[in-house]
Write a structure and sequence with these properties.
This protein is α/β, with parallel strands linked by helices. The protein has 2 domains: about 5-65 and about 375-410, Urease, subunit C, domain 1 (Roll), CATH 2.30.40; about 70-355, TIM Barrel (Alpha-Beta Barrel). It contains 15 helices and 16 strands. The strands form 3 sheets. The protein has an 8-stranded mixed beta sheet, with no helix packed on it. A 4-stranded parallel beta sheet has the order 5-6-7-8. Strand 15 (about 410-415) and strand 16 (about 420) form a beta hairpin. Helix 11 packs across helix 12. The longest helix has 21 residues, at about 425-445. The structure holds zinc ion. Zinc ion binds near residues 72, 74, 221 and 309.
């Protein structure tokens, strides 16, 4: 009696808490408390009475885990979902995606496409994503409206688009955007040179210099296909990774997306540099680009995160599907069923993603003091029975629709599958409007 109880904003009492660190740990019948947007306590449910919560949620058949981190995508391209399928990367890009983008991409296109992506990502357990697309200023605004956390990379190309004229223009607009959001709690703005085959060496050198000066991450498509590597060797006499390393672009803040073509010495180079690799298995499989040697990279000491890539080459933004595919593909491609176990796949979708974007002290695991970016997954359904191993169930047998609640920085962004800051009907109507507009343009052109 008379004891002062610790006050918390929200207390979530669940069947299982998966902290992710340490990898593989499952805390049965535990509770997580949120105070001022951060995790303030993780304790057995039997001790939840020690806390005085403004709001208490009891979810005895849910698992609570860190929000998933989708480390690579192009959110606005969700409007191209299913527009051009069953093609290899270069014909897909040059004959379909780029011509359509030059015709349709605008602020309005990006706004509607990003909202569609945000709704899908939040409804499938993603609470932080990395994006690369034109009009990143619009993407930033939409993220803040929806309450989503993001690393927004501003694209750099040599060629013009609706957003910029040349590499210098993209860089200058991107750095202005970075200044605008320098103090944002949810957003970071970083360099996103598209790839070594769309950005000149001169522009890449400028980015390397600026990134070092400003201590900013660089996110780039790299070694996506074997052809990219052989073409570069024919043109420059060396492999693209070597070119970037020579320029000084491969360091601890570099995020190399795809990496399906890797030699042993290159894995060592990445490990020594401390660079991260972003693995996008479903996009790589669909475009028949190749497969990233995930287990070998991890054995070499390289941080490997996961991304969906855009809905135009996946065709969804579901990180539960991506975890499962990553685990299965690693086993198939290495002929080793022990490669990439479930707990490792979950780490890749959470803490490894956080590490890749330099946010490992803030998100990616459930630890006291970290940002309260959490998701609750309903395991009460028949498809989750029987429950021998919760992490195995989450990776191999969970549908994205089992995610019922999400929080970003302690703010509830989805409750009982309803988004709190996005109107699903409006998002759908806008997507359908673009579908009709793009289809009509295709018929007349
Ligand atoms: Zn991509």
């Amino acid at each position: 009696m008379g004891r002062i109880m610790q006050k918390v904003d929200t207390l979530i009492i669940t069947g299982w808490v998966i902290p992710v660190l340490p990898e593989g740990e499952v805390l049965e019948n535990h509770a997580v408390a949120i105070t001022a947007g951060r995790i303030s306590a993780i304790l057995p449910a039997s001790r939840a009475g020690e806390l005085e919560a403004a709001e208490t949620l009891e979810m005895p058949e849910h698992a609570l885990l860190p929000g998933l981190v989708n480390c690579h995508g192009h959110a606005a391209m969700s409007l191209l979902r299913g527009y051009a399928d069953d093609l290899a990367l270069m014909p897909w890009l040059t004959q379909h995606v780029w011509p359509l983008e030059s015709q349709h991409v605008s602020e309005e296109f990006v706004q509607d496409g990003v909202n569609l992506a945000l709704a899908e990502m939040l409804r499938s357990g993603t609470t932080c994503f990395s994006d690369m697309y034109f009009f990143p200023n619009i993407t930033a605004e939409m993220c803040l409206q929806a309450g989503m956390r993001a690393q927004i990379t501003f694209p750099v190309f040599d060629f013009p688009s609706a957003w910029g004229t040349d590499a210098d223009d993209y860089i200058s607009k991107g750095l202005t955007l970075r200044d605008d959001y320098k103090h944002s709690e949810l957003l970071s703005i970083v360099f996103g040179p598209h790839s070594p085959y769309t950005v000149s060496r001169q522009a890449l050198e400028k980015i390397a210099m600026l990134a070092a000066e400003l201590d900013l991450p660089v996110h780039i498509h790299l070694h996506e296909t074997a052809a990219e590597v052989t073409d570069a060797v024919a043109l420059n006499g060396e492999r693209p990774l070597q070119t970037l390393a020579d320029i000084g672009l491969i360091g601890p803040r570099t995020q190399c997306v795809h990496m399906t073509e890797l030699e042993q010495t290159e894995m060592e180079l990445l490990a020594v540099a401390g660079a991260s690799v972003i693995h996008c298995p479903e996009s790589n499989m669909k475009l028949a680009s190749g497969s990233c040697p995930v287990a070998e990279l991890q054995a070499a000491g390289v941080n490997v995160a996961l991304g969906t890539d855009s809905a135009a080459s996946n065709n969804d933004l579901n990180m539960f599907g991506e975890m499962r595919t990553a685990a299965l593909l690693a086993k198939l491609s290495s002929a080793d069923a022990t490669a990439l176990p479930a707990a490792r796949a979950l780490s890749m979708a959470t803490i490894c993603g956080a590490r890749a974007i330099g946010m490992q002290d803030q998100i990616g695991s459930l630890e006291i003091g970290k940002q309260a970016d959490l998701i609750a997954v309903d395991l009460s359904g028949l498809e989750s029975q029987p429950l021998y191993n919760v992490i195995s169930q989450l990776v191999y047998a969970t549908h994205a629709s089992q995610v019922t609640h999400s929080w970003v920085a302690g703010r509830n962004v989805m409750s009982e599958r309803l988004l709190t800051a996005l109107d699903a009907e409006t998002v759908k109507a806008r997507a359908q409007h673009w579908g009709e507009r793009i289809s009509a343009g295709r018929k007349t052109s």
